[in-house]
Amino acid sequence: MHKPGKRGLARLAAATRHSRDGLLAAWRSEEAFRTEATLALAFLPLAFVVGADLSHQLILVVCCALVILAEILNTAIESVVDRIGPEHDPLSGQAKDLGSAAVLVSLLLFALAWSLSLWQWWAS
């Protein structure tokens, strides 16, 4: 039988607390997350200086957010794999590698978007 859970605003409040807890856990346990979050905080205001228009600014902001999102998901994957056990398993290694690859792809996208944007801004 389905157990009734929180509904409405109570569910939203609980989900918000869990999300806050997740961000705090990432901040406390992952140096990469702290570095990327700090850089994102520095780059976000710059997006509104460098971006030529609102859509350009949004692209730069989204690139910052994608790095943070990828790092959070990578940390979640690593936590689950580590919870399963310390022994080496090819699928566990593959899961961790795929999470790391997601972070790399997001960082490459960030670097491309920001490099082109800064170059265009500097040249104008």
UniProtKB/TrEMBL annotation:
<comment type="function">
    <text>Catalyzes the ATP-dependent phosphorylation of sn-l,2-diacylglycerol (DAG) to phosphatidic acid. Involved in the recycling of diacylglycerol produced as a by-product during membrane-derived oligosaccharide (MDO) biosynthesis.</text>
</comment>
<feature type="binding site">
    <location>
        <position position="30"/>
    </location>
    <ligand>
        <name>ATP</name>
    </ligand>
</feature>
<feature type="binding site">
    <location>
        <position position="78"/>
    </location>
    <ligand>
        <name>a divalent metal cation</name>
    </ligand>
</feature>
<protein>
    <recommendedName>
        <fullName>Diacylglycerol kinase</fullName>
        <ecNumber>2.7.1.107</ecNumber>
    </recommendedName>
</protein>
<keyword id="KW-1003">Cell membrane</keyword>
<comment type="similarity">
    <text>Belongs to the bacterial diacylglycerol kinase family.</text>
</comment>
<feature type="binding site">
    <location>
        <position position="71"/>
    </location>
    <ligand>
        <name>substrate</name>
    </ligand>
</feature>
<dbReference type="GO" id="GO:0046872">
    <property type="term" value="F:metal ion binding"/>
</dbReference>
<feature type="transmembrane region" description="Helical">
    <location>
        <begin position="98"/>
        <end position="122"/>
    </location>
</feature>
<keyword id="KW-0594">Phospholipid biosynthesis</keyword>
<feature type="transmembrane region" description="Helical">
    <location>
        <begin position="33"/>
        <end position="52"/>
    </location>
</feature>
<feature type="binding site">
    <location>
        <position position="11"/>
    </location>
    <ligand>
        <name>substrate</name>
    </ligand>
</feature>
<keyword id="KW-1208">Phospholipid metabolism</keyword>
<keyword id="KW-0808">Transferase</keyword>
<feature type="binding site">
    <location>
        <position position="30"/>
    </location>
    <ligand>
        <name>a divalent metal cation</name>
    </ligand>
</feature>
<dbReference type="Pfam" id="PF01219">
    <property type="entry name" value="DAGK_prokar"/>
</dbReference>
<dbReference type="InterPro" id="IPR036945">
    <property type="entry name" value="DAGK_sf"/>
</dbReference>
<feature type="binding site">
    <location>
        <begin position="96"/>
        <end position="97"/>
    </location>
    <ligand>
        <name>ATP</name>
    </ligand>
</feature>
<keyword id="KW-0067">ATP-binding</keyword>
<dbReference type="GO" id="GO:0004143">
    <property type="term" value="F:ATP-dependent diacylglycerol kinase activity"/>
</dbReference>
<dbReference type="GO" id="GO:0005524">
    <property type="term" value="F:ATP binding"/>
</dbReference>
<dbReference type="GO" id="GO:0005886">
    <property type="term" value="C:plasma membrane"/>
</dbReference>
<feature type="binding site">
    <location>
        <position position="100"/>
    </location>
    <ligand>
        <name>substrate</name>
    </ligand>
</feature>
<keyword id="KW-1133">Transmembrane helix</keyword>
<keyword id="KW-0547">Nucleotide-binding</keyword>
<keyword id="KW-0479">Metal-binding</keyword>
<dbReference type="InterPro" id="IPR000829">
    <property type="entry name" value="DAGK"/>
</dbReference>
<dbReference type="GO" id="GO:0006654">
    <property type="term" value="P:phosphatidic acid biosynthetic process"/>
</dbReference>
<dbReference type="InterPro" id="IPR033718">
    <property type="entry name" value="DAGK_prok"/>
</dbReference>
<feature type="transmembrane region" description="Helical">
    <location>
        <begin position="58"/>
        <end position="77"/>
    </location>
</feature>
<keyword id="KW-0997">Cell inner membrane</keyword>
<keyword id="KW-0444">Lipid biosynthesis</keyword>
<feature type="binding site">
    <location>
        <begin position="114"/>
        <end position="119"/>
    </location>
    <ligand>
        <name>substrate</name>
    </ligand>
</feature>
<feature type="active site" description="Proton acceptor">
    <location>
        <position position="71"/>
    </location>
</feature>
<feature type="binding site">
    <location>
        <begin position="32"/>
        <end position="36"/>
    </location>
    <ligand>
        <name>substrate</name>
    </ligand>
</feature>
<keyword id="KW-0460">Magnesium</keyword>
<feature type="binding site">
    <location>
        <position position="11"/>
    </location>
    <ligand>
        <name>ATP</name>
    </ligand>
</feature>
<keyword id="KW-0472">Membrane</keyword>
<keyword id="KW-0418">Kinase</keyword>
<keyword id="KW-0812">Transmembrane</keyword>
<feature type="binding site">
    <location>
        <position position="78"/>
    </location>
    <ligand>
        <name>ATP</name>
    </ligand>
</feature>
<keyword id="KW-0443">Lipid metabolism</keyword>
